[in-house]
Structures are given as C-alpha cells and as structure tokens.
What we know:
The complex is a heterotrimer of chains A (327), B (308) and C (397). Chain A has a domain at 54-265. Chain A contains 13 helices and two strands, in the order αααααβααααβαααα. Helix content of chain A is 70%, strand content 1%. The longest helix of chain A is centred in the last third of the chain and has 27 residues, at 220-246. Chain A is mostly helical and 327 residues long. Chain B has a two-stranded antiparallel ribbon. In chain B, helix 1 (2-33) packs parallel to helix 6 and helix 3 (61-82) packs antiparallel against helix 7 (187-209). In chain C, the strands form two sheets. In chain C, strands 6, 7, 8, 9, 10, 11, 12 and 13 form an eight-stranded mixed β-sheet that branches. Chain C has helices at 2-23, 47-63, 84-96, 109-121, 152-166, 179-191, 210-219, 231-242, 262-265, 285-298, 304-322, 330-339, and strands at 34-40, 73-79, 102-104, 125-128, 145-147, 170-176, 195-202, 223-227, 251-254, 273-276, 349-351, 357-368, 374-386. In chain C, strand 1 (34-40), helix 2 (47-63) and strand 2 (73-79) form a beta-alpha-beta unit. The chains are: A mainly alpha (327), B mainly alpha (308), C alpha/beta (397). The interface between A and B is large, with 53 and 49 residues.
Amino acid sequence: MSGEAGALPLAAPAVPRPRAWLVGVVIFCALALAPLAVPFVGGNYLLLIGSRFMILAIAALSLDLLIGYGGLVSFGHAAFIGIGAYATGILAVHGFTEFYIAIPVAMLAGALFALVTGAVAIRTRGVYFIMITLAFAQMAFYVMGSLSAYGGDDGLTLPSRSLVFGSAALKSETVFFYAVLATLIIVTLALRRLVASRFGRVLQGLRQNRQRMEAMGYSAQGFQLTAYVIAGAIGALAGFLLANSTEFVSPAFMTWQRSGDLIIMVIIGGGGTLYGALVGALAFLSLEEGLSHVTDHWKLIFGPLLVLFVIAAPGGIARWLGWRAHE
Amino acid sequence: MSGLFIVQLLNGLQLGVLLFLIAAGLTLVFGVMNFINLAHGVQYMLGAYLAVMFYGYTGHFLVAVLLALVATLLFGLLLETVIFRRLYARDHLDQLLATFGIILFLNEAVKTVWGAAPLSLPIPELLSGSVPLAPGLNYPVYRFAIIGSGFVVGAALYAVVNHTRIGMLIRAGAHNAPMVSALGVDIGRLFMLVFAFGAMLAGFAGIMVAPVFSVEPGMGDSVLILAFVVIVIGGIGSIRGAFFGALLVGVIDTLGRSFMVDLLRIGVSTGQARAVAPALSSMLIYVIMAVILAMRPEGLFPVKGRQG
Amino acid sequence: MKRVQISRSGIVSALLAATAAMTIAANAASAETLKIGLMGVLSGPQAVLGQQVNNGFMLGVKHAGGKLGGLETEVIVQDDELKPDVAIGKVKQLLERDKVQFVVGPTFSNLLLAIHKPVTEANTFLISPNAGTSNYAGKQCNPFFFVTSYQNDQVHEVLGKYAQDKGYKRVFLMTPNYQAGKDSMAGFKRHFKGEVVDEVLTPLGQLDFSAELARVASLKPDALFTFMPGGMGINLVKQYRQAGLADTIPFLSAFTVDESTLPAQQDAALGLFGGMTWAPNLDNPANKTFVADYMKEYGTVPGSYAMQGYDAAQLIDSAVKATGGKLDNKDALREALKKADFKSPRGAFKFNNNGFPIQDFYLVKAAKRPDGKYQTEIVQKIFSDYGDVYAKDCPAK
C-alpha cells in the first residue's frame, strides 16, 4: 500500500478555511448544554449514551493522531481501550478505586503496550502495519479472555465507579457526563497543541515525504513510535472512562470489530483535522443509535449510506467542509 | 500418534486450501489495482448461500455448484461496474469505508432474505463416506475433494499467471499498474476481469465449505481477517506468497490447536498446560504473523519493486 | 465559496440534530400500562436464539389476550448486539425513559453480568429467560432476579449423570474456550466419576473441528461430551457425522443439538443426545397448546429458548394478576413471582430460594418429525425436582 500516499487531502491548496475549531466550540457548547435538556426528553440514560459517544470520540481522536497525522492506520486501537478498562477494573477489584491511581496506571499500561508492540509494528508500512497492529490487538484480546480470575470472557463487574478523593461524585450521571466532556476537551486541546508543535510537523512531514525528512536527519521510527505511545495512552484513558461508564469490563470492549469502527469514525470525519474525527465519531454513533430505533434492519440503510457518502464526499466530512487537513 | 499427526496435517492443508482460494483474489485485486476490498469476505458468504439456494431449486449438487459459480462471477462484475471502479483512484481510507458499507449491507441483506438461522447443504452422495487412513482413523472423502480442488485451482492459477499474456499483464500490473496502462493496455478491462475472477474464487471457497460449515450471515468476516493475514504473510500481490502463506497459516493453526497441550506439557504441569494452551493456540497465527513481519516487513515473497 | 461551506456545516449540524432527535424517540405512555423491556441478541449470527425467546414471550402475551395480568401491556424490544456497553445504555433507557417494571433478558451469560447490576439496583425485576450464571445463584443472589431457564451447570450435569449411570469409563470433553465452556466441563464432572481422557477448549467461533475430531477418533473414548452453541454446534455435528464417529462414539451434548440448530444439522444430528428441561414432545396439555400455537404463529418448531421466553411472560402474567395489578408494591409482586403460579409446558416448576427454578431434567435425542421437520424428543428423566448446588450459598430464604 502506498500507505503514506493513502493520500488524504494533505497538501490541499490554500482554500479559505471555514474555521474548524468553530465547529469544535459549537459541539462542546452543545454537549455542555445537553444535560439541561435531559429532564424534558427522557432521562439520565441519555447522559449515559452521550458519555459513551464522547468516550469513543476520545479514542477516535487519538487514532486520528496516528491515521491523519502519522499515516499509521492502526487496526488494533480497541486493544488500548480494553487495556485501560481492564487496568481500572482489576485495580478496583483489589480495592484501588481512586481515580488518581486508576488513570495513571491505565495510561501507563496503554503506553507500555504501545511501546512494546509499536517498536515492532512501525518497522512495517501500509497494510502490513494495519495487519500487525491487528495481530497484537488480537493477542491482547485472547489474553484478557483467558484471565479466569477476572471473569474471563464473561467480564468483570466493577464494585463502583472510581472515587474522586474519597467521594463517589462520579456516581451521578450528570457529574460523570461533565467529567467525560472535560476530558474530551482537554484531550482535543492537548492534541491540537501537539500536532501544531515541531513534533507534530515532523510527524506529518514523515507521512508526506519520508525520504526527505530522514535525509534531514529525523528518525522516522522514533517520531512514529512516540506518536503511537501517546495515542495508546489516550486510548487507555478512554478505556478507563468506558469501564467507569458501564461499571463493567469485558473482552468485548476490544474486539477487532470495535477497532474497525474506530477507523471508520476517523475516515467519516476525515483524517488529519482532529475536529473531523470528533464529528465523525459523533455522526457514526448517533446514526447507529438513531437508525437502530427506526428499524431492526438498519444496516440495510447504514451500509449504502456509507458507500454513497464515500462517492459524494471523498476524504470525509472535514474535506467536504473544506477544512484544511491541519493548521 | 503418527497417524493422528497425518490426519491433522491433512486438516491443516484443507484449511490452507480454503484460505488460499479467498486470499488469491484478495491479493490480486490488491496487487494489481491497489484496492483494499473488505467486501471480499461477503463474496465467500454469498457463494455459500447461493449454492444452498440453487440446490433447493435443482436438488442437484453439481448443477447448484456451477450455477452458484456463475452467479458469484456475475455479482462480482456487478459490484465492480456499479461501485468499485469509482473507487480505484481513491485513497485506501475511502476504499475501506465504502467496502465496509457493502459488508454491512450484504450481511444484513442475507439475513433478511434467508433468515438469521444457519443453513446447510448436504454432501453429495458420491463424495460422502470416509477413507480409513489407519486403524480407527477415518478421513472424510469430501475433505479430500476440497484439498484436491484447491490444489487444482492453485495449479491453474499458477499456469495462467505465469504462462499467459493475461497473466503477464497481471504480474506487470502488480508491479507497476500505471506503466501497464501507459503501454496501451485496456487497464479497465483487466481490472474488471481480475476482480470478477477473484470474486468467483472466493465464492468457490464458500460453495465448497457449505456442506461442511454452517452457512450463516457474517460467515465471511472472520475468514476475511484470516485471508488478510495470509496475504500479508505471503507478500501482497504475490500468488505464490498467498499459496504458501495460506498453507502455513492453515497447518500452523491446526497443529497448534491439536498439539499445543502436549507441547506445553514438556515444560509445565498438565493443569497449567490446559489453562494456557487454548489462549496460546488462538493467538498462534497472529504471533507467527508478527514474527514474520518483524523480520520481513513486506512478507515472505514480496513483489519486487512494488511501492509500499 | 465561504457561504456554501457554512451551509454545508449547517447541513451536518442539522443531520446530527436529526439523528439525535431520532435517538430521543417519543415518550408517551399512560400510568396504567404494564411496561416490559425485552432485551436479547437480535443481530449477528446468534440472533436465532434471541428471536426464539422473543417469539415465545410474545406468544405468552398473546395467550393472555395482549394483557398480562389484565393490564394493558407494552413490550419494548431492544437488541443488545452482544456488546456489553451497548446493552448497558439500552437497559438504562428501558429503566429511565420507558420506566419499565420488568426487564426480560438477556440471551447470553456475558451480557447478564453487564446488565444485572443496573437493573436490580433500580429495584426493577430482571427475569432471565436463558442465561443463568453461577455467581447470581449463590452468594450474589438478588431479590429482584428470577430465572425461567435453569442454572447453566445443571444441563451439563444431566449428561455427566447419564454418562455415570451408563457406566462410561472414559469420556472426552470439548467446549469453546470461554467461561461458559469451562463451567460446562465443571458441571459435567460433578456427577461423572470416570476418567476424562482429554479436555479440549476450542477458540470461540471455530468452524472446523477436524483437528479435534481426529484426536477423538484416535483416543476412542466411551463417549464425547460437548457444549457447542450456535453455528459451532452445527459445524461440529455435521463434521462428527462425516468423520464416521456418530455411529461409534455416543455424542452427549448441551445446547448443541436443539430446535435452533436442527434445521441446519438435519439428518446429521439424528440420534445425538442432549440435556434439557423439556422437549417439544413432552406429554402434557400446556405443552401441546404451546407447541401447536407456536408452530401456527411462526412456522418453526419451538426450542427451549422459546419455551423459557413463553414462561417468562406467563410468570409476569401470574404475578401481576395475583397482586391485582398493583405494580408499585414490589414486595407483594416478589411474593407473587416466587409462587410461580402458572402451567409451564415443562410440567412441574417452582422457584428455589435463589430465584432459580427447581424442575425435572431429561436426556433428549434429535429426531425427525412426521412432517419432515426436526425436533428433540424425551429419552429418559435424569433428575426430578432438581435445584442447583449454589442455592445453599444464597442468604435468602
């Protein structure tokens, strides 16, 4: 695969750029106001569904760092969600329920897994990279499924949500929703800064022209591995949140189908803009949720919709809206 | 023990042959057109369903097989003309998304038309029964038929790819498609041919397994993943790579499942071996793939000069 | 140019808003209605089982004239997609938006672990029409949890007991590699005291069993015990027959040969054994009505899943009737549920202290019906009035 030439509209000429960040602000504001509407339209379950959307959006954002900026199409990103979730669950079972223990441990576990597997994976390119990341994710999947002490395939019920300095504040669906939203905003802003930094520019440079960047003395593997580790840690953070949201952990969080869904979210949004991944994740999940209420056979609608979408809007929503791939 | 080993080897070959039939089309479409076709697995599913359907109409195994082969070929052509040819020039991510949409649609469509309950196809009278290999060890005739037909197809493919003009174009295409086009070959026709033929091979695999496996919606998904493992191990675009990759995956997976416990018992207690073996044998092919790619990032038989 | 793009942003926002609006579907119901959330797997290959449960349940509602316990009944069907996080979102939706009084579900054990906590913590009754895991039968038994199927181990125990009684000395065990598979082996061994010649755990979703069957053939056990639900069972049975083992080594199975898989296994399954609390040919009036009406309604032979779904509806009907339709009095409702005052197609049925049934278990065998369809048939009774072994750990009385 001409992986790097899996050319997203990278070097798009200077189109007047409708401010992508404005869409981000609109989405964040809408999300922040959403809980106010909840009492009128249903119940707290909407907050739970909303939290799940945002959690998967966090994972999609971190995947966009790899796909959109690094040109590294990882087909194993759900593994990080699973690792973060299991770290949280296993800690909770042993009585470590404070978030300030669970979050660093989960993120470190994700980063460590990313470091070890990434060191091997980034030696490959294109489809080979896709498949080797899948391979590592499958290994993690089978390992978690065989942890009999922690429920095996049946999964593990958490005694409760993580504590915040001894308080069970996260038990409230509203508080939890805002905690997830805050995390989402922080992750978005942090990733924005990261991709605008020298590190981010080198990463994109490597994707566009590896030889040139290497000739300039940048180590491709070093930069790509760093990106992979960062994305893994953020993926694990999403896993921490997912485990808390459902108060349950299971290998079903880390199937290859879920990794595939995450890739699809990024592609729908359009890689390499971050806000695209955000919109893509929310669009994918709300379509899935919405259509499944309309008919059991919603995939008959959703499938062709994706095909038409690709034909009508190559490069995802971001490009269709005329966003530049990056700032 | 040695009798058992031979049986397992045959089983491994049979799985390998099936994977090869699917992987062959996948690797060619990928190699020649630089097109990632996730919808290749649903061709396999469709082959199986069509065989069951035509068997229901005709009651004759061979006729059903032939009709299903033609139907999968036509369906491949239809998909190519209506959708895929619009996507050749697109980047891989667009192709992933569109073909993923096709999977969703076809899996659901099959379920809507034929129901969620698994179906099956009886084994033809001629190929039922089993052959004694050793005292108490029988091997079903039908499985020999699967292995045999796989090798025949493999040999035919090898001959076509290496000894005909079309084959030369395909090889050239896998090497450098724009160049072939620049030489005045109707690349559109070549693409269509390769695509439809690859779809038919996957359909053939589905037809062959319909009597052995259950025919159910989504049956192509996990097979697709295995086929990708095969072509990546073999080297993308290489029929030879797909062949050896498929046999390697088939044999290792089968032997791993059967002898992992015995192997582990050498080092640890039986109880521990039984606890660890299942997870280990499930991930064995992924471990092998990771090791191969770590050492040879472009697979065992990389097509020389291919970009990425 | 810019205007066009802004309007495109508008379109995207509008679409997002529209889909969000779809998510928040209409919310209208009167206070007098009985609301039941019916949750199971309805998509993917496992959908057959979820569909059977739903069909059975809806038949139960129909038999009650559309009014369970005399109340206007609304059944809200949800597909858990076999994804725990999806299931939890949907179950909260049932609890908080729809304010259901009962959740009936799920189909699979691993989903039960996911939804048990949210439902019971909301003081809502959870009626499981199929999954019955050991943890909720013992120490973690719950006053809001009832099971109309069985404790999972019991079905495996049937085969173990049969193998023991039959005097089999050497048995080969094979199950998928997941928790239910391991529990299954443990269940079989509870009553079987002979030699286990080998235990094989196959990857979940495995299609080709030729490797394992070759091993079975070489070890020549007195019997094979297996638990291979769904598509795996279909493959295994076909391949077992093709390998020529079906006539030489007895095939003792749980959830492998039943009405959900027989339409695909067909003749290959004839004569193979299973264990169950019921079979379509069990001779009692309630069962005759159930099977005949089910076949008239859906055109297929009902399996135990359908029967258990049917009983879940009957159970709710009986309890609501007994309390005079007072859905708010949970304690009265619970007492009424415990009585299990209805005629189950399986005959005698009562609840143990842990909310799991005490009932009879049979050895069943696959057979062809006169109309050309396939069904399981009773061979012999293995256990009478049999409760599970975990109930003694349940603190409830």
